[in-house]
Every structure is written in C-alpha cells, then in structure tokens.
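Cross-check.
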Amino acid sequence: MPAGASEPTNGRLPRVAVIGGGMAGLAAARVLEDARTSGSPQTTADWVLFERDPRLGGKVQTVRRDGFVIEGGPDSAIVEKPWPIEMARRLGIGDRLLDSNEDIRKSFVFSGGRLHEFPEGIILMVPTRLVPFAFSSLISWPGKLRMGMDLVLPRGSATGDESLGDFVRRRLGREALAKVAEPIVAGIHAGDPEQMSVRATFPMFHEMEEKHRSLIIGMLKRRRARALLAAPTTGPRQSPRSYFYSFRTGLADLSDAIVASLPGDRLHTGATVVAIDRADEPAGVGRRGGFMVALADGGREHVDAVVLATPAYASGELLRAVAPLAAADLESIEYVTTATVSVAFRRDQVAHPLRGFGLVVPRAEHRGVMATTWSSSKFADRAPEGYVLVRSFLGRAGIEAAAQLDDDEMLKLVRSELDAMLGVTAEPVTGEIFRWPHGMPQYKVGHTALVDRIEAAVAEAPGVELAGGAYHGIGIGDCMREGAAAAQRALAHIAGLAEEPVPPQPHDVPAGDGVAD
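Predicted model, tokenized:
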C-alpha cells in the first residue's frame, strides 16, 4: 500500500481520492489542500492522489536539455482561458509567464505542394480583413467569393447538433473547409470535421450565428472587444499580452509549481487504481458508506468522495460497479492516438526563414505529418543561439498509422516531410519523440447530449465527480477549471453528508418511560 494510504478507521476526517495526476487532477488536489488547511470545520477534508505513471502533469511534459526547451504535449495555453494564469499568480510564478513572439505571428498551410501564408486577419477560419484575404494565394477567387457570402446568408436551423464540416460548408463553403477549417481543427483536436460536433468544439460559432447571423460580423465584434481588453496597463507584469502564452522554461513550470505546493506524502505516483466499489465500513464518526478504492498492489483506500481525473474510457472502467449506465457512455467516447517529434538543427542548415509559428497540412494532401510548429520562432529561448527547434504532430482521426510507427521509422518520416515542406535535409543535432496512445478525446456530433447523460448518470452515485478533457474542453485551462470544480463538488458532497442517527443511550431515556405507574 502506498505511504499515506490506510484502512478505514473511525474518527478520521472525511477523505477524498483524486485519481489521475494530470492538470485536472493537480488542480483538484490544490483545491482540496486549501480546504484541508483552511481551519474551517465546514471545509476541512483529508485527501490523497493516485497516478499510475511515474510522473505528474499528464500531457504537460517539458524536456530541458543542452539549452533546448522541448514540449511533449501542448506548448502553450490561450489567454481566453484564465485558470493557468490565476494559478501562476497564486503560486508566485506570474513573472515566469512568457508571451509568444507576436511580431512574427504568421501561420502557413501546405497545400498543392507548397506553403501558403494564412491571410492576415483570419481568426480560426473566419476572415476579418478584406485586403490580405483578397490577395491570398491559398483560396481561389470562387472560394473567396463563397466565403464572403457569409455576410448575406440567413441563419441556419437552430434545432439539433451539426457536424463542424456541415456548418463550415453551409457558412463558408467547401474550399474553406478543406484548406482552412480542416487543418486548423486537426491541429487542435486531431479530429475529422465531418464527425466533430460544432456545438461541443466551437460553440462560439453557433453563438455568433444565433446572435449576429454572420460569422464574419460576429468575429469582427469579438476582435474589437478583445482589443479593448488588451489595452496597455501599468504596474507589475502578471498577465500575458499575447493570445498564446507559455512559461520561461516550458509549461512544466506551472505543473512543477503546483506539485511543489502540495504535500508530497499525499501524491502517489506509480499507483494504479483498478476498481472502485461502494464501501460498507464506517467512513467516519457517525457516517457510513462512501467508496473503496482498490489499488493494483493490493492496497485499499476508504474514501467519502472520488474525483476521477482520468480519460473517459478509464473512468468508465472504474465506474462499472457504482455507476454502470455512466460507465457505458464514458467508454463510448472515442480517442485518437497522436505523437510529437521535436528535432533541432543548426540555423545555417535551414534555408527557410521560419518567420512564423508553423504550418498545418490539410487532410486532402495525404501527408504523414498534420502540423509542424516552429518552436524556437513561436517562443523565445526554446533553442540556444545559432540553432532552431521544430516540432511535428502525427496522428489524426481515421489516420493514426504515422503515430504508431517505431522511433526510427517515425523520425525518418518526419525528416522526409521537413524536406518536402521546408527543404531541410540536414541531420538533426538532437530529437525527442513523445507518444500519446489514445490521447485525444473526440467530441463527435451529439457530444453535449452525451455528456449531459453521463453527468446525470454519475449523479446517481453521489460523491463521484468527473474532470478532465473529455467533457467540456481539451485545453490546459479547461482541464484545470474542470478539476477545481470537481473538487469543489466533492467538498460540497462531504459537507452535506447526513449524520447517521445515534441510538438513545440509557441516560437519555425519559424517567418512567415504559415503566408501569
């Protein structure tokens, strides 16, 4: 049994188990530690976290080597999701926030055998500036005219969900879907727009159509509002100014700081939870019930609530005994296997200027790499002076073979793609491969209704809370928000547990009760 885990005993504090040590699990643990140390009897609770892997942080994994900062999973967060920023300020690392290099914020599309610059002013897939859009080589003139029709098209039907593919075709046309929308959403979700839910993946688009009728009009108003919020401020710098941001030595600055802020004896790595069952033993003074968490090493942990910050399929497997209806739906959420390959070169070995954030590749190009980030261009200090670092992404919905190659074949594929797209033929000076089997949840059409059904079914097992990227958003900020909210719900459950009635004691029996006069 891991250190700190114990058999249930009477007289203990209510206890919460967090299962999963990614960003959602760490955010949940931070909330629970605040409650434990608050000194308030209404919120005081004990807690423990179990993570099957030998490290914490989940997909946030940064390798720092020989002056290179190499990200294994996400390389940035977005300013619209403020939870990582708030956590950084709280932990005293707000001064480590790092803006992206906005002066070269360009992206490219590899289409028809060459790179095309994304027109300035395209936000996600919506054009907001006429001149750069008109002169772009990416979209044909018929395609541009079709995208412009968004300004006059009526609103669509508000009934039911819709695939992102159908939505983009309806508002912006087929060419916009193939050359702009599909590669962008593949880079974010590794998904297929023909199956992705627009309401779940880009709810802003649905809201813009409802409110403004036109996506272009809606995005213009959104851009103006963001510009006002981004107005210069005075005082100490504690917020990023760019849309994408990271930390000075990688996103692990944040996960490492959260871990360092938590008591180490409550964090158990290499600890695999294999089952959750309802418990019969007392869960504390005057309370009964709760859950028994079983570990692979034979240990058992009796808790009053559980925060499941694991992938949906893992959560489903663990909930088969206590919430079978939720378990079946959780296991129906599909995941895509992806991988990232980071390689570095001497600057003089790469003829391309790499002035931009990187490139995306439409599905129609049938390439093994779906996107490449120019890491040392996007953020400062990602490579030592005289070197460049680039990172390629492999695996997308329905096309996962490239992400399942062995290391030698995967590296060979990436080098071939870099040659074809950027003309890089040199031998890398260093490289790093990260694999994410079944790592990217897919928000398919009907996802919001599916999640509603899952949450309703889980409510039938009070004390079980779900968190993570499978439900309401896949980004770091989304996961942290979900984890913190799940921990708060677990604490509310504990606070509301009814005390078990205590049988009357002899001195409590009224005089003469049951005695003949």
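The first strand starts at residue 15 and ends at 19. The two ends are 60 Å apart (CA to CA). Passed to J.P. for a second look.
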